[in-house]
Amino acid sequence: MLKRKVGYSVSIVNRLTLLMLFLAAVALIALSISVRIANDTKGGAYMTNQLGLLRMKNYQLLSMVPLEPRQYFRLDLFADIPLSSKYSELLARYQLLGEFDQLQKLWVNELVPKIKQAKSIDDIRQMINSYVAQIDYLVHSIDQKTEDQLVMISRLQLLFIVIIVLVLSAQMYYLRKYLLIPWKKLINMAEAISQHNFSERFKLGRKRNELDLLGLAFNNMSEQIESQYSLLEQRVVEKTAELQLKNSIVSFLYWATKQLHTSRPLCERFLVILNQLEKLTPLSQFQMRFYETDDLERYQQIGYGNAQKLPHCQEKACSACLIPSKPLSSKGKSLRWYLQDSCEKYGLLFAILPDDEILTDEQENLILGLIEQMTLAIALDRQIEQQKQYLLMQERSAMARELHDSIAQSLSCLKIHISCLQMQVEPSSQESIKLLNTMRKETSIAYSQLRELITTFRLRLNQTGFYASLQELVKEFEQKLGFAFTQNYQLPLNIINTKYTIHLLQIIREALNNIYKHAKASQVTLNFTIESNQIISISIEDNGVGIQNKNTEENHYGLIIMQDRAELLNGNLIVESIPFKGTKVMITFKHNSDIPLTVI
């Protein structure tokens, strides 16, 4: 990019050169005039001495009066005074050439004849004195003229000194104003720039010189450096904010990972983390859905910002659902992310993003990373539950094996021995036959119930959670009975823990098995409700033949086992049956869940 060359209208160097030349010219003029005036006085002293000698010779001649002819050569006084051109010019400059010529003529024309004629000193004394007076006057005039010249030289020198002083003062003023002050300003600018202060500016004059150009260059440089420095400061601020954001994100992920893997309820862990996530992103009003089966219409939803605690919450110290949510500054759109892995979907995360906000890459990565951690936490919790179920099933399988290998074998052997004994007893002994029949019947019932118990001990839960296992059980008996059941399930998901799940499923299995074997029903209804006082009610109702007297004995052992399991739940079992209208089995117990969630 071509830049226009900036020139200057005045030059400090030229001005200083002119000032120096002017000062030198003044000095030269003063010196030349002084030399000229001094040259004009040259020869004045010589003429004064010659005139003094002339005066002395007059007095010598006066003392020699009367003169003898052989002494007349002494009368040629002006022969010793050579009037060369320079002395003539001196007298001419002094305007005394006429006086000198008159003095010479007076001597030649008047005094010389009278001196020759004088017989005594008195005859010529007065004329000699008068002539000497004229000589003195001429000497005085030469001295006066010389003094005047010297005074003129002094005055000229004083005048030129004043001029030189004024020129020097003007030059000092000019140097101070146009060189020293701008130079100090440039130095101050340089020091300010070195101290990262770019606000200083060089004030340009109306007529620019070299320092103005330098100041303009400093101004441009300062502006450019200030611009670059501001840009760098802005980038530093942006990078610092970015690093702080990344540091806060890393710290948040570390803290969230620790929170997710604590033993606190799952809802508390998630809600506290999501509330903190609001501070790092423009998202707000987080909501979560939890799935227990592949049926996505059946879910449990939690959130914070509620006016009161979630229903059925057993954690008195927990208030995660009461945490206030960040208010929305404007309308927004709903975003969602699935919590899933390669095996199944565990839940769904909802959030509101304002219309005037966007998610940065760091924020999106943060949310995705957090979702992975949350998914892993749910998966780990389910694995823990599966591990608990697996351990419980192992224990129950071991009990089933022990029962099969001990009591079941003994009962089977006892049945065989009773059968053999019946064949050996005489028909006449009615009481013995009746007793043997009773023993065989009771043994068969006990063996049947034991086989049923062994079967239930070997029950395996293929899903995690009560609802998922219940659906498998319902599908099993729907296939056996050939029609679909009516379900009214109003329990929160995961409200029943593992140890309660086994007993409840066994009670429900026993009730459905009785319906399958004895009820001859065409409709089965299952109700699961929870009251505000945390009482859970479960009912299994059919429209079959009801419990008849003839099969009461066959079912009494199963009912006893169901009653025992209900007591293990600290609950009650009620069986209501109307002949030819159906049977209703109802279990009620106090809710005691490790993970309380709200009901949708």
Report the strand count: 9
Biggest β-sheet: count, sense, barrel?
5 strands, mixed
Number of helices: 12
Shape category: rod-shaped
Distance between the termini: 70 Å
Summarize this structure as a short list of keywords or feature phrases.
single chain; 600 residues; alpha+beta; five-stranded mixed beta sheet; four-stranded antiparallel beta sheet; 12 helices; rod-shaped; disordered C terminus
In summary, what is this structure?
This protein is 61% helix and 11% strand. It has helices at 12-40, 44-64, 85-93, 97-117, 121-194, 210-260, 266-277, 361-424, 430-457, 466-481, 498-519, 552-568, and strands at 284-291, 299-303, 332-340, 345-354, 486-489, 524-530, 535-542, 572-578, 582-590.
